[in-house]
Each structure stands twice: as structure tokens, then as C-alpha cells.
Amino acid sequence: MEGKKSFLDKLKGTLRNTGGGLLAGLFRGEERINAAFFDELEEAMIVADMGVDTSLALVAGLREAVDEKRIRDRSGARAELVEMLASRMRPGTAFPADEGRAALLIVGVNGVGKTTSIGKLAHHYVSLGRKPMVAAADTFRAAAAEQLTVWAERANVPIVKHKEGADPAAVVFDAAASFKARGCDILLCDTAGRLHNKKNLMNELSKIRRVIERELPGTPIEALLVLDASTGQNAIAQARAFMETTGLTGVILTKLDGTAKGGMAVAIRGELGLPVRFVGVGEGIEDLQPFDADAYAGALV
To answer: What number does CATH give the domain 96-293?
Structure first.
């Protein structure tokens, strides 16, 4: 419980610049709502990386709610917007890894925090009493397996790896066998970050999926894209490219503490329809936690 409280405190602190500088300032006091308020709110949302289409839709929805519910002051409008944001960002579907055995394919370009995210995910599941295992299936990038090994050791979880250049599916095959033998319940698979070679990436992930389906029948498979929040709208472009090739089911948003904006989670959900499953707000091993839409909306606005 203390860990969760600490995380929420960090989330609020991380988004303080966004809320204080771009959004929350519009809602201070009991000033009445006027046309200029909606124009300013729309601009602030776009600047906060919520995306143009999502920002326009949210402001239009808020206008309608203000009229229908006869909201007269900005504090009332704020409460309405928080609920609208939270409602939009809630996943809508259960996350298989919360319920039982699951395989998580972690994808993303190099430099977004993919390897560290896997290590932090391993720690997260260990802290819940689960038994994760790491498969070092990024055999393309030099030293990827070694870096992942350091994180696996920090989280005190087993890792299966092969030499550089090995077949990633072969790594996962061996990991699946060890996974069953050790009685693990969460398989975390690193994958190569190669946007420049979409066809090979797609083929590689399809092969990995087939291995998991064959060796771990009935195990749900999730493909989670790691995105760097500080890259702004470039992160959306990355996500679109991966969606074309990998059948993404969710997003891990890292480095939220490295941006003064913070609306990226809203844009991802609004423009791509992808739920944000985890969010990172620091460099510590405990600083990657399940995404809480209500806490995020409240902290953002």
C-alpha cells in the first residue's frame, strides 16, 4: 500500500508542471465559464501532447456536458473533465497478467527504456508474489542480453538467453520449457527494436507467438509497446508503425518524469485505441507501476 501511495505522489509531482502551467491554471477559483475558457483549454490540451483530434473531442464533450448539467463555474467543469478523461483512458478489458499465467511480448525502438521496463516489470510481479521469467529474445542488439541479465538479477528472477545473433524464437522455445519446469506464471519476452525492418520484425514476432502458443497452450499473449513520453507526438508515429506489424494490445509509457507535458497517455488512448498498461515516473526499480486512469486524470488536470 505504501508503494502505491509513493507512486501516486510521484505521479502528481511529475504532472505538476503540466497541470500547473497548462491546465490547472484554467480551473482555479470560481470564475465563470465563457467562450474564451474553451479556446484556452483546447490550446492547453494540444500543447500538453493530448493530440489535436482528442483535444477537440474532449472540449466538445465538455461543452455539451456544461450545457446539459448547467455547470456555471470552472471548478465544476474541472470535475467533469477529470471524469471524462478517466473514462476515456480506462482499459475497458482485463489485463491477462492480472488474472493468471500470461506471456508479455515487449516491443519498441532502442532507447525508449525497453530493457529497464522488463526488469521493472519482473520486480513488480515478484512484489505481488508472482513467478516471472525473462526471455532475452532480442538477439539483434549487441549486449542486449547482458543488460537484461543485470536487471533480471536485480529483480531476482530467472532469465533464458542465447548468444548474439541466435534465433529469437529458439530463445523463447527454451524459455517456455524452463518456464514450465520452474512453475513460473509470467513470461516477459524482450524483442528486437527494428522499425526500419518491419517485415522481419513482424515475421519474428509471429514466430515467437507460434512457439508460445504451441509450448504454452492456453496462455494469453500480450504485445506491449514501450514509448518514451518525452518524445511527444513522435511516440504516436512510432506506435502507428508498430501497430501495422505487431498486433499491439497495449502500451508501457516511460520517462513521464522527463517531460513537462504529460498528455501523451490521453493521445495514445484517443488516437490509437490502445490502453496504457504501465507508466514509469522515475529510474528506480519500483518506479514502473500499473496505470491508474483515475489517478492520472486527477493529477493531469
So the answer is: 3.40.50.300
